[in-house]
Amino acid sequence: MSGWVAVRLIAGREIAERLQGRVIRVMTLLTALLVIAGVTIPGLISGSSAPTRIGLVGTPAQALAPSLRRIAQAARVRVSTSDFADDAAARRALAGGRLDAALIAGPSSARIESEQGISASVRAVIGSALDGAHLRSELALAGIPLTKVLPALTPVPVTVAELHPKAPDQAARDVAAVAAALLMYVSLAMYGGAVATGVAQEKTSRTAEVLLAAVRPRQLLTGKVLGIGATALGQLGIAAVAGLIANAVVHSARIPGSVIALIPAFLVCFLAGFLLFAFALAAAGALVARQEEVQMVTTPIMVLLVIGYVLVYPAVSSPNAGWVRVVSFLPPMTPMLMPARIALGHLAWWELPLSALIMAASVYGMVRLASRVYANALIHGGPRLGWRAALAIR
Amino acid sequence: MSLALELTDLRHRFGDLVALDGISFGVGEGEIVGLVGRNGAGKTTTMRAIMGILRPDRGAVRWLGHEVGEGDRMRFGYMPEERGLYAQMALRHQVAYFARLHGLEREAALAAADGWLDRLGLSGRADERLVALSHGNQQRVQLAVALVHEPRLLVLDEPFAGLDPEAVDSLSEVLRERALAGAAILFSSHQLELVERICRRVVIVDAGRILAAGTLRELRVRFPAQLRVRVDTDEDWASALPGVTVAGVDEEGVLLVVDPGVDPQTVLRAAQARGPVDHFAFETGGLLELYRRMVSG
């Protein structure tokens, strides 16, 4: 039998065992629901960014409508206007929630009424419109023709130059990089434990000795990690598809094509990271003498995972910092930090191939190390083993 | 008989502890060999070395004349001393899974699993999970796992431990049947009367070394023969005979240890000279007796 047939059999058994349990179905459903909620709720709440409805009471106020709309558009503030004959009608509309603010303008003063106040930007837009109207009427009263003062009223042109412009979709790219790290973190937090527990279970139940009579430790570990990894990917895939469908329905966020193009690279980072951590966790699981010790032996590895995840946030905000460049080449950190750097796109040509090479070598080395620890630790009865002892026994 | 399995000078240490100190023996096709020795003598380590679970520091494990390879081990069956299977897996799928790991195709594996569960009296429970079974029945499943791929070599570490008498008989029956089919079988046991009953040859190990190996008859020859003689006399007639030592006297007569080379006829004549002899026989010590004499001497 070729090695891969055994790996496939072992992976198949792992998947079947996991799908048997009710927990996985509940967890999958729950994850999918959480993602759907995460996508739709911001979309529903963002109803608050609807235009501010301003009621214009009386002729002087209603005359402001065109300039109000023009100023609001320039300031990127969304407003809509409607006309009211008197204060009472406007107040009824305010109380009924059909209006956000009512503007009552006199010849030299104005009043804004609202139920719970208005935003500073809407206040500024209304103020600017009122000032313009006031200036024009005062000039007319003073007999100064508008054409004479027009140059003085024309705003000084200001151009904004961006020396290091961000890509227009940079925010979306950053979110994608953080999401990739989060995915990595969540999948290992959810399933990394399953790898360690599964190995520990086979050791403490002595099933491993029967298995090792038929297959090599490397096949056994690879099958286990791939089987559990496939289950994780399947579950997260279902959640991702649910999220995308929900997004298509509520139009919560627009996903730029450039972000979709990043997905293959992120997926490679994810797979490499999952393999590296999962094999390390498998080796840790082989060290225990009792199931209860799994948590203890896996903690240092999980801490490393958390550190990587926490570093993503500063890395996304300054992906070109020296420390980010250095740390992103350290194998346990690469799967978290490389996506952030890829998302910014300022990578030297050699950085990705080098990183891929280091990562591939680390995964290979980890498979070998884990197999050695596994083979040594499994036939070792007695108390929990240290890493050094497990590597030294022959 | 040509040896199918051949161990040559296996040596292994766990730190300061010498586990194997030059173990060499063989098992022929169709032969059942018993591995006997006290706890910690090196039985399990020897078996693990055969199965490739442990790589000995030195020495060779050969199968049909060549160094054991991965392909050979596919045709080996193993039952470790510390039993272990998947507690939550149904019997049928569990046994079939191990059959497939040994190279059987899916359908053949399921058929073989059904066959062995049936044979071992578990056919009605094939869909139950292992954890639902009694200890004895779990042991049967473990045996089914070792046998399901019809191995050419069976290595069983304490297969009879914890079995009730009926299960012991049925397991003995299965082992004989597999041997008749040509399988080489090596098993360890502390139940020496069982070993004596089932095995053609015995290997006695102690402290990682082989104390003795051979058929029971061959082992007996290594020790001075014990002769029991009952003569109707109260006199000590035997201790003066050359090459003869009196090992004991009781109502069954005297027990004499006779050096190799001493003609029993001279002993018989000396006895007859004192009175009528109504019992004159060599004591054929069982394996238990031999074992005791070996490990104490």
Protein traits:
heterodimer; A: 394 residues; mainly alpha; D-Maltodextrin-Binding Protein, domain 2; 2 domains; four-stranded mixed beta sheet; 16 helices; 70% helix; elongated; B: 297 residues; alpha/beta; Rossmann fold; Alpha-Beta Plaits; six-stranded mixed beta sheet; four-stranded antiparallel beta sheet; 10 helices; 14 strands
Task: Characterize this entry briefly.
The complex is a heterodimer of chains A (394) and B (297). Chain A has 16 helices and 4 strands.
SSE order and pairing:
The complex is a heterodimer of chains A (394) and B (297).
Chain A: H1 3-20, H2 22-45, E1 52-57, H3 59-62, H4 65-74, E2 79-84, H5 87-95, E3 101-105, E4 110-113, H6 120-141, H7 146-153, H8 170-204, H9 207-212, H10 217-250, H11 257-287, H12 294-317, H13 322-327, H14 334-344, H15 351-378, H16 387-392
Parallel strand pairs in A: 1-2, 1-3
Antiparallel strand pairs in A: 3-4
Helix pairs in contact in A: 1-10, 2-10, 4-6, 8-10, 8-11, 8-12, 8-14, 10-11, 10-15, 11-12, 11-14, 11-15, 12-14
Chain B: E1 3-14, E2 17-28, E3 32-36, H1 43-51, E4 58-63, E5 66-67, H2 70-73, E6 76-79, H3 91-101, H4 106-119, H5 135-147, E7 153-157, H6 165-180, E8 184-188, H7 192-198, E9 201-206, E10 209-215, H8 216-221, E11 225-231, E12 244-250, E13 253-258, H9 264-272, E14 277-282, H10 287-296
Parallel strand pairs in B: 3-8, 3-9, 6-7, 7-8
Antiparallel strand pairs in B: 1-2, 1-4, 4-5, 9-10, 11-13, 11-14, 12-13
Helix pairs in contact in B: 3-4, 3-5
Overall shape of chain B: it is elongated
Compute the number of helices of chain B: 10
* Total strands of chain A: 4
C-alpha-based Rg of chain B, rounded: 24 Å
Strand content of chain B: 25-35%
Largest sheet of chain A, described in full? 4 strands, mixed
Low-confidence stretches of chain A: none
Beta content of chain A comes to 5-15%
Q: Give the structural class of chain A.
A: mainly alpha
CATH architecture descriptor name of the largest domain in chain B = 3-Layer(aba) Sandwich
Strand order of the largest sheet of chain A: 2-1-3-4
* Sequence stretches where pLDDT stays below 50 over 5 or more residues of chain B: none
CATH topology of the largest domain in chain B: Rossmann fold
Task: Give the % helix of chain A.
Answer: over 70%
Could you tell me the radius of gyration of chain A in angstroms? 32 Å
How many separate domains of chain A?
A: 2
Order of helices and strands of chain A: HHEHHEHEEHHHHHHHHHHH
